[in-house]
Amino acid sequence: MGDAIAVKNLGIKFAVNRRRRLELKNLFIAGREAIGEGDYWALRHVTFNIAQGESVGVLGRNGCGKSTLLRLVAGVMLPDEGEIEVNGGVGAMIELSAGFVGDLTARDNVYLISALHGFSREQTDERFGDIIRWAGVGQFVDTPVMHFSSGMRARLAFSIVTRMEEPILLVDEVLAVGDRAFRRKCGKVIERMLGDGRTMLLVSHSENDLRRWCTRGIYLRRGEDPLQGSIEEMLEAYDADDDQT
Amino acid sequence: MAAPTVDEFSADFHRLHEATTIRRSTGIPFADRLYDVWVRRDVLRMLVDRGLKAKYSSSVLGYAWSLIEPAMFILTYFLLLKIFHRSYPMYPLFVGSTVLAWQWFNGTVTSSLSSLRSNARLITSVNLPREIYPLADAAQKAVEYFLSLPILLVVALLYRATPSYYAILLPLALLLQIMICVGMALLVSALNTVLRDVQRGIGIVLRMMFYLIPVLYPLQRLPAKYRTLEALNPLTGILEMQRAVWFPGYWTGWQPVINSIIGACIVLVGGFSVFARTERTVLKEL
Q1: Which chain B positions have a beta carbon within 8 Å of A12's beta carbon?
Q2: What is the pTM of this model?
Q3: pLDDT, tens digit (0-9, with 9 covering 90-100), for B225-236
Q4: CA distances from A88 to A7, A119, B20, B131 (A)
């Protein structure tokens, strides 16, 4: 099979001062323009291919564009430069959420998110029990998700995203908030999914997790021209940069 | 937990493969976007159902509110005119025939202000054509319009009024209004995400527009020089058609209707194109 994800010369920029520039009163009242006005490339010249069934780790410091990269691959942000080709459905768990609507209950969220991913009511009915059981939130199915702890939210999100059985999995820092039992459970699921031939892009700060599941790594350094290589090489490069500062 | 069988997995895989027709490279043509929305019309439907359910089941009176609101509106203006002794014949029917259409437009614009913002979490997690969210709000308001129509029929029955031959124009009036509402929903939802001022501005514009376009009075009553100006608003032709169904005597000719047809096309295409142009920025803002 071919590539699951092909990224070519990807670039995305953000306006440093967008909000201030866009408010109407600032369009009419000149003055006090901040220094550094203009655009800032969060990611640029990013090129990589991920084969079907491959698992790749993304590493880099806070704010280096890891979540942005995942969003671009998930198709929920659009690049300013370059192209992304994704072959297959994507299950994305970004910022500990599968896209929860806070004032809806866990039950409603499961059905809503599943439906947005193209599942019928009946298909979700079949999976619903499993999703809730695995997440261990049985007692709180009818509680609005906004009252959930971050651990519960992460468990529910991971459960929904993995039970959708999408061929491509994007996981952003899920394991950081969970306790040990949860991490172990997640580990099992990830192993099963990788065994089934799913493709995974994992963002993590945990060296153990990256070593355990990823064969290759992408190290985002200052957003431009990321380093790529085996996961070991990337972890070494990351450590070396860390020691310098 | 049990791993799915190979068949189950491959069935899912193919379903998802087919569903993933969403294009991500730069510069997406208009037709492709409409097609992407069409492919996921199941989601559109579900969002509308969800919106209606939330609206009707979260209050005690539920659906009755859809009738009470226009009924009170009609009553208020009826009493107001009674007090000033300036009544048109069958004024409640007169107001009712246009005010339901106005509330549809007003409701669409108002609710589309938050179409993208209130769904930010979903939009930034699940890859769907973003147009779906404002379109769902527009569709919901259209459904609510049809649900509020019984109040107009009740008023007509009370006056024993019968529709005129202009009733054959109703499908055109509805089609044009759908086009305008869809275009406005796309436009307003996108602009309000990048420019917070839109929300405040729109509130004022809507309030002024309500009095400036012929909702409460017939276009005919205006002096000729204002009439031409007013007929430029694409909503005017729609209101004229709606009113002529019950009051053919107030018909002023085809000019407002022609303007509406042109205007509706502009608003619809403009809405889609502004949405597409601002989408990149909108997604960064959410």
Answers
A1: 284
A2: 0.85
A3: 888 888 888 999
A4: 14, 15, 6, 21
